[in-house]
Amino acid sequence: MISLEKQKVLEERMRKLGILEQDLEESFVRSQGAGGQKVNKSSSCVRLVHRPTGIEVKCQISRHQTENRFLALRILCDKYETQILKVQSEKDREIYRIRKQKKRRSRRSKEKMLADKKAHAQKKQLRKVIKYP
């Protein structure tokens, strides 16, 4: 279950962003994937559409409808911030940082590969047969 504290924080965030409950179109559908008989019988997947912006979010992380609704609202707030307010979210910054780090790694590996190639070329150069005139 989600604590009242977390729910209040989410409501406050929605209020600050200007997302109103009456602007949300909410529907519950059956989840897909793992979960067995429970998933096949209950509609635990939450689909939210913010009518003014057209942002659509689907969430089926949990088996419980209330948890999925809470998580879907959080995802909707994140999407609203990035798409409408053009604010770079923490998640986007983290993704950017990791990509930059991987780019650095590939540069290092490329340098190492070139150094290995040069060493191999020098070995081959030493194997050449010397011809005397």
Give the total of domains: 2
Order of helices and strands: HEHEEHH
> What is the molecular shape?
elongated
Structural class: alpha+beta
CATH architecture descriptor name of the largest domain: 2-Layer Sandwich
Mean pLDDT: 88
Kindly report the oligomeric state of this protein: single chain
Straight-line distance between termini: 90 Å
Q: Strand portion, in percent?
A: 5-15%
Radius of gyration: 27 Å
Helix content: 55-70%
Number of helices: 4
Class of the largest domain, according to the CATH hierarchy?
A: Alpha Beta
Question: Total strand count, please?
Answer: 3
Describe the largest sheet.
Answer: 3 strands, antiparallel
CATH T-level fold name of the largest domain: Double Stranded RNA Binding Domain
Low-confidence stretches: none
Kindly report the spatial arrangement of strands forming the biggest sheet: 1-2-3
Characterise this structure.
With 133 residues, the protein is an alpha+beta fold. It folds into two domains: 80 residues, 2-Layer Sandwich (Double Stranded RNA Binding Domain); 44 residues. The protein is built from four helices and three strands; from the N terminus they run αβαββαα. The chain has a three-stranded antiparallel β-sheet, with helices on one face. The longest helix is centred in the C-terminal third of the chain and has 38 residues. The N and C termini lie far apart (90 Å).
What does this entry show, briefly?
By secondary structure, this protein is of the alpha+beta class. It contains four helices and three strands.
